[in-house]
Structure formats: C-alpha cells, structure tokens
Amino acid sequence: MNLYAWGEAAASLFFPQRYCVGCGAPSPGQPLCPACHSAMLAGRSCPRCASFIAASETAAYLCPECRHKQPAFSAASAALPYAGHLRQVLIAFKYEQKTGYRRPLARLLIEQYQMHCGDYACDAVTPVPLHARRLRERGYNQAELLSALFAAATGLPHHPELLSRRGETPPLAELSRRERIKALRGVFEASPGALGLRILLIDDIFTSGATLESCSRALLAAGAAEIRCLTVAAGQALP
Which residues of 99-128 are buried (b: 16+ CB within 10 A; e: fewer)? Predict the structure, then answer.
C-alpha cells in the first residue's frame, strides 16, 4: 500500500464525517463534497506564502509580494481559501468549543500534505502554541488538536513541546501585517530540541503569515534546519 492509499485508509478510520466543511452539503465519510474537493484540487497558491492565485498560473508561481521577500520558513501550503462555510467552521472550531471539527479539518491537512509536501523529509510536526492563560480559558489549542491527529494518521513524529508562547498579544484580527509582526516580536520561544530538525509547522489559518514567521524565526534561532508551514485555510490580512 502506497503512502496515499495508507493515508486514505487511516483517515477513514480516524475521521468519520457527514457534512462538507467547505459548503455544508451532505458528504458522508468525506471532509469535502465532490464540488469542494474539485475546487481544492484545482486551487493554486503561492508556494512561499500560501495565498491563492489564478488557477492558470503554474505551481511554481510566486505572488507579487513574495517575489521581493523571503520568509523564515521555506514554503507554506493551505488547503482552501478562508471564506464561506469553511470560515464559519474554523471560527466555531477555534472559539466556540466545536472541537469535533478537528477530524475533517485534519483530513484536509493530510490530503494537502500528500499533494504538496509529501516529498518533505520531515523530522517533527509541531503546532503554533497558545499562551498559557488563553489555553486555560479556551481549554484547548486548536492547532495542537489538528497537529496531533495529523501526526497520528501520517506516522510523523509529533513534538508540540518544541515551541512555547512566552508573551501575550492583543487580538491580531484587526491589525495590519506590519502591526502583527511588531506585536509578535519575541513572543515565541523554541526549545533546544529543535536543533537540526526539519519541522512541519501546523496552524489553522494563514492570514498575514506574521505568526508563522515569528514561530519559524524562533525555531531557526534554536538551530532547526528548515521550516515548512501547513494550514487548513489561507486568507488575506490588512496591508
């Protein structure tokens, strides 16, 4: 059994599903209905920042902004745009205790990984961490719920301890990318265990990339060899 077939079998076992997380239509046993799955397969995103671009462009195409910058992570990939029903699902998953959504959302991560990151020799899977106070209030870290299921289904080593959040930030949703980067400066700390590792960094949403950039810088400062990022969705931040 090849990696894809094994992943599908494992996903079916771990992630039973009744409705499409993309549009809400009935989708027994699958995270996406046929129409949303086709949209996922046809989607094209910048391989550096995960922002979605014209379907006519090649997979190697960089968005205009990434032609002039190189983030700390080497690549990023997202399954679908942060819009429509999927946006509602992710908000409910993150803020409304709807943790059952972790199963279909993790399955999207698995398929995206198989399509775009399967050649990455990953040594560790780690989630973007929450601050301890926010974790106590919410009761869970949505990124870690996703990364744990992802690692269990793919067999990749799960190391959530590689990153910690030592400072709190104001709500980032209304901040520009520049403001986010400033607010996140020095917030994340990586453990010495990151030394020499090729790391797959998982989060729910790629918006401006400021959070993933800050996490990646911390991991590289601790000696990580390379960082790639994988998210369920990608949206657009304020300029």
Answer: eebbbbbbbbbbbbbbebbeebebbbbbbb
| pTM beyond 0.70, yes or no | yes
b/e burial code for range 28-60 (CB count within 10 A of at least 16 → b): eebbbbeebbebbeebebbbbbbbbbeeeeeee
What pLDDT, in 10s, does the model give residues 104-156? 999 999 999 988 777 778 999 999 999 888 899 999 999 999 999 999 999 99
Cβ pair 17, 107 in contact under 8 A: yes
Helix locations, 126-200, DSSP H: 132-138, 142-154, 177-184
CA proximity to 221, closest of 195, 182, 185, 184: 195
CA end-to-end span of the chain: 46
Question: Going by DSSP bridges, is the β-strand pair 163-165/188-190 parallel, antiparallel, or unpaired?
Answer: antiparallel
Domain architecture of the chain: domains with CATH: 13-234 (3.40.50.2020)
Q: Which alpha helices (H) appear in 163-232, and where do they start and end?
A: 177-184, 210-221
